[in-house]
C-alpha cells in the first residue's frame, strides 16, 4: 500500500514514499529532499552464505548523470565504474549501518541507493544515508535501528545544518554525524583548523537534529514496518569453546598475544590453532568448521579482558603511550619531495610530485560545484606490508577512503593557486602496517610536501585512538595510538588529524551501538595531546618549515597576468602561436579565462624566454622603443622580423643600413637576430621598424 510521509528538515521538505516503487525489495524508500530524488532499497538473501565468518553487507551508491542533465563523456556514453565520490558515499552509508545488524547474521544484504535527480541545495549523499536507514528499518531484515544523519557546515562562525550549495562553498566545516536514539554512531569531518571544543559542539548539535529525524522514521516504521524474519544464527558451540579454554588455558593465550611484534603473535596463534586442529580431528571433527571463529573469540575476550580489567595492553604500553616514532625526509634523491613516517610496525613513505595546473584532475560527476581536483592524494596498501602475498588489482574502497581522508586533512593548509600555481599529487606507499596507516600517511605527506617546497600554512599530524567497553556506559578505556590487534578486537577507531591550531579531519568507525558524549570528548582531547607531541617532538626536528623553493628536479612555474582579450593572440589560430612557443622553449603553458598565464618548465632560462614571448605578443609596439627579433623572410622590398611566434614586423630595405642597399641578402640572412627600433605607423597604417636608426 502506497503511503507518503513528510517533515521539514533544515528549511526544506523531506518526503518519503513507501510502497510506490520497488515493491519486490525487502524494503524500499522513495526519497525526496527538495528536488533531490533517491531510491533506497534494502534486500537480503533467503539463506546464509556458506563458508564465511563475517556479515556480507554490500552498500552501493549509484550516480546517474541524467540526474543533473548530463550525457556521459567518452565513446560508450553510459556510466562506468563508480566514481570516487560514489565509493566514499557508500563507505559513509555503511559505517553507521553495519554495527546495527546482528553480529552472527550471515545472509547477504545489499543496500542500494540510486540517485535519480539532484537539487544541488539538497545533498543526494545525505538523502541516501537517510533512505538506507528507512528502507532497512521498514524491511523484514534484522536491524537494531533506526539511525539518522545530519550534515553541518559553518558560515561566518555560525553552524548551518544540511547546508545549501552556496553555503557549502563558503563553509569552513564539512561534518556528517550519524546517530541512534541515544548515541553518536559515526562521525566524518573536514574542517579549517577548527578548535576541539567547537567541533564537539557541532557534533552534538547534529545529534539533536538526528533525534528529530529518528522520531519521524519511527512514525514510518509504525505504519509500514514488516516483522523481522528469523535467521540461522552462527555461533561457536559452547562445548567447543569451554574445551578449548581448558585445553589451551587463559594464561597461555595471554602469553601468546602479549607481544609488541605482530609476526610473533601471529606465529603463536598459528601454533595454538594447529594444536587444536590435531585435537579435534580425533576428538570431534564436527567442531573443525567452527575452530577459526572459536580461536578468534578466545583472542578477543583475552585482549579485551587484559585491557579493561588488568589495564595491560598487548604490547606492554601505557594507555596513553604512543609507539616508537621516527620521521625522515629526502628518502628518494630525485623525486620532487619525499617523507617517511614510522610508528611502531606501521611505516608509510609519501612522494610529492608537482606539475602544471593543466594536470589538475578533471571530474565529471553529479556535483556541479566540483569539476576538478588540484590536490590529489593516492594511498596504496600492498600485500607485503602485512606479510601476505596476493596480486595487486588496483585500489579498493578502503584505499580510496584513506586517500580521501588525507586530502581532507591537508587541503586546509595548502597554498592557493595564486600563491603556488602548481597541481600537487602525493602518493602514500604503505611499507609496513600494524594499525593506523591512514594517519601515518597524513604525517608522511606533511613531511613530503614541506620537503618539496610546497608552502603549507601549518604542519598536520594524525593519530588514532581506540576504545574497549564493558557492560555499562561508564565502564570503558580509551587507548592512544591503537595497533592492529586493538583495532581488530576493540570497539572504535577514532582518527583525528589537525594542526596546533585545530582539527582538519575526523573519521570515526565503531563496532558498538554508539558513543556517549563523555567518550567522544575524551577521545578528541586525547588525540590533541598525541598530535601535539608528534608535531613538536617528531616532525619539527626533521623539518619545521617548508623549503623556501622547489627542488632542482621540480618544475618551476612563473605566472603572469594578461588582458583576457589578448588570450586569442597568445593561443593563435588553432593553437599555432602557443604551440610554437612550447616547441621553441620546451615549457608547458596554461591560460585561464581571467588571463592568468602559467609557464612551467625545469630550466629557468627557457621559462623566462617563454614569458618574454608571451609579453611580447600581448604588448603593443611603441614608437621609439627597441626590440630584438629574428629574420624569418626576405623580400625585394624588405625583411620580415619575428619578435615572438605570431608577432612580426617589417624593416623596409631603405631602413636596413645607413648606406644604400641594393640587395637585402648582402646585409641579412634568414635566422639573423637583429635589434630594431619602432618607427610607428607608416602612411598605410602599418607599424614599421628600422635597423639603421637604432641608437
Q: Can you give keywords for this protein?
A:
695 residues, alpha+beta, Ribosomal Protein S5, domain 2, 5 domains, eight-stranded antiparallel beta sheet, six-stranded mixed beta sheet, 15 helices, elongated
Describe it.
The protein is of the alpha+beta class. The protein has 5 domains: 3-148 and 195-224, 2-Layer Sandwich (Ribosomal Protein S5, domain 2), CATH 3.30.230.70; 238-308, no CATH class; 325-395 and 412-469 and 478-485 and 517-539, GHMP Kinase, N-terminal domain (Ribosomal Protein S5, domain 2, 2-Layer Sandwich); 556-618, 2-Layer Sandwich (Ribosomal Protein S8, Chain: A, domain 1), CATH 3.30.1370; 626-690, OB fold (Dihydrolipoamide Acetyltransferase, E2P) (Beta Barrel). The protein has 15 helices and 29 strands. The strands form 6 sheets. An 8-stranded antiparallel beta sheet has the order 8-7-9-10-21-20-18-19, with helices on both faces. A 6-stranded mixed beta sheet has the order 1-2-3-4-6-5. The longest helix has 29 residues, at 196-224. One of its GO terms (molecular function) is RNA binding.
Amino acid at each position: 500500500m502506497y503511503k507518503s510521509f513528510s517533515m521539514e528538515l533544515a528549511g526544506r521538505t523531506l518526503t518519503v514514499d513507501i510502497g510506490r516503487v520497488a515493491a519486490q525489495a525487502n524494503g524500499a524508500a522513495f526519497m525526496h529532499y527538495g528536488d533531490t530524488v533517491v531510491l533506497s532499497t534494502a534486500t537480503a538473501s533467503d539463506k546464509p552464505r556458506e563458508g564465511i565468518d563475517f556479515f556480507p553487507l554490500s552498500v552501493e551508491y549509484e550516480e546517474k548523470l541524467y540526474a543533473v542533465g548530463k550525457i556521459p563523456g567518452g565513446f560508450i556514453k553510459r556510466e562506468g565504474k563508480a566514481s570516487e565520490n560514489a565509493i566514499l558515499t557508500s563507505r559513509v552509508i555503511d559505517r553507521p549501518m553495519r554495527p546495527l545488524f546482528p553480529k552472527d547474521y550471515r545472509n547477504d544484504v545489499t543496500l542500494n541507493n540510486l540517485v535519480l535527480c539532484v537539487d544541488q541545495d539538497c545533498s543526494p549523499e545525505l538523502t541516501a544515508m537517510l533512505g538506507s536507514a528507512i528502507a532497512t528499518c521498514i524491511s523484514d531484515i534484522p536491524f537494531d535501528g533506526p539511525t539518522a544523519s545530519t550534515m553541518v557546515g559553518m558560515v561566518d562562525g555560525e553552524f548551518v545544518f544540511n547546508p545549501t550549495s552556496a553555503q557549502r562553498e563558503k563553509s569552513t566545516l564539512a561534518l556528517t554525524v550519524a546517530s541512534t536514539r541515544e548515541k553518536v554512531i559515526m562521525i566524518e569531518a573536514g574542517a579549517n583548523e577548527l578548535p576541539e571544543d567547537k567541533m564537539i559542539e557541532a557534533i552534538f548539535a547534529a545529534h539533536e537534529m538526528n533525534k528529530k529525524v529518528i522520531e519521524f522514521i519511527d512514525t514510518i516504521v509504525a505504519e509500514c514496518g514488516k516483522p523481522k524474519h528469523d535467521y540461522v544464527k552462527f555461533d561457536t558451540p559452547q562445548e567447543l569453546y569451554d574445551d578449548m579454554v581448558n585445553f589451551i588455558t587463559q594464561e597461555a593465550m595471554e602469553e601468546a598475544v602479549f607481544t609488541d611484534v605482530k609476526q610473533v603473535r601471529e606465529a603463536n596463534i598459528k601454533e595454538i590453532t594447529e594444536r587444536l586442529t590435531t585435537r579435534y580431528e580425533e576428538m570431534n571433527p564436527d567442531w573443525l568448521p567452527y575452530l577459526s571463529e572459536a580461536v578468534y573469540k578466545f583472542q578477543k575476550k583475552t585482549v579485551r579482558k587484559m585491557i579493561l580489567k588488568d589495564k595491560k595492553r598487548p604490547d606492554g604500553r601505557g594507555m596513553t603511550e604512543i609507539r616508537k616514532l621516527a620521521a625522515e625526509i629526502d628518502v628518494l634523491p630525485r623525486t620532487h619531495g619525499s617523507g617517511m613516517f614510522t610508528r611502531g610496525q606501521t611505516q608509510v613513505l609519501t612522494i610529492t610530485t608537482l606539475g602544471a595546473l593543466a594536470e589538475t584532475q578533471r571530474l565529471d560527476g553529479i556535483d556541479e560545484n566540483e569539476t576538478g581536483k588540484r590536490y590529489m592524494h593516492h594511498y596504496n596498501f600492498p600485500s607485503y606490508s602485512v606479510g601476505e602475498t596476493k596480486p595487486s588489482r588496483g585500489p579498493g574502497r578502503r584505499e580510496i577512503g584513506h586517500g580521501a581522508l588525507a586530502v581532507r586533512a591537508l587541503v586546509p593548509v595548502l597554498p592557493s593557486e595564486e600563491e603556488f600555481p602548481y597541481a600537487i599529487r602525493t602518493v602514500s606507499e604503505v611499507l609496513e602496517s600494524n594499525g593506523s596507516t591512514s594517519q601515518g600517511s597524513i604525517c608522511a605527506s606533511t613531511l613530503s610536501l614541506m620537503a618539496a617546497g610546497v608552502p603549507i600554512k601549518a604542519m598536520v599530524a594524525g593519530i588514532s585512538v581506540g576504545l574497549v567497553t564493558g557492560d555499562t556506559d561508564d565502564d570503558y578505556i580509551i587507548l592512544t595510538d591503537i595497533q592492529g590487534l586493538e583495532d581488530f578486537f576493540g570497539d572504535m577507531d577514532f582518527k583525528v588529524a589537525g594542526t596546533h591550531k585545530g582539527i582538519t579531519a575526523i573519521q570515526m568507525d565503531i563496532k558498538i551501538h554508539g558513543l556517549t558524549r563523555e567518550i567522544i570528548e575524551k577521545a578528541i582531547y586525547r588525540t590533541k595531546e598525541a598530535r601535539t607531541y608528534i608535531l613538536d617532538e617528531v616532525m619539527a626536528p626533521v623539518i619545521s618549515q617548508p623549503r623556501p623553493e622547489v627542488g632542482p628536479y621540480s618544475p618551476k612555474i612563473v605566472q603572469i597576468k594578461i588582458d583576457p582579450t589578448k588570450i586569442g593572440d597568445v593561443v593563435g589560430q588553432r593553437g599555432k602561436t602557443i604551440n610554437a612557443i612550447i616547441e621553441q622553449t620546451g615549457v608547458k603553458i596554461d591560460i585561464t579565462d581571467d588571463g592568468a598565464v602559467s609557464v612551467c618548465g625545469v630550466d629557468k632560462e627557457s621559462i623566462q624566454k617563454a614569458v618574454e614571448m608571451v609579453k611580447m605578443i600581448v604588448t603593443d609596439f611603441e614608437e621609439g622603443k627597441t626590440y630584438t627579433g629574428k629574420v624569418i623572410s626576405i623580400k625585394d622590398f624588405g625583411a620580415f622580423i619575428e619578435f615572438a611566434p605570431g608577432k612580426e614586423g617589417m624593416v623596409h630595405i631603405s631602413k636596413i643600413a645607413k648606406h644604400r642597399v641594393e640587395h637585402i641578402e648582402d646585409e641579412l640572412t634568414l635566422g639573423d637576430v637583429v635589434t630594431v627600433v619602432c618607427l610607428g605607423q607608416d602612411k598605410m597604417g602599418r607599424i614599421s621598424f628600422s635597423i639603421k636608426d637604432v641608437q
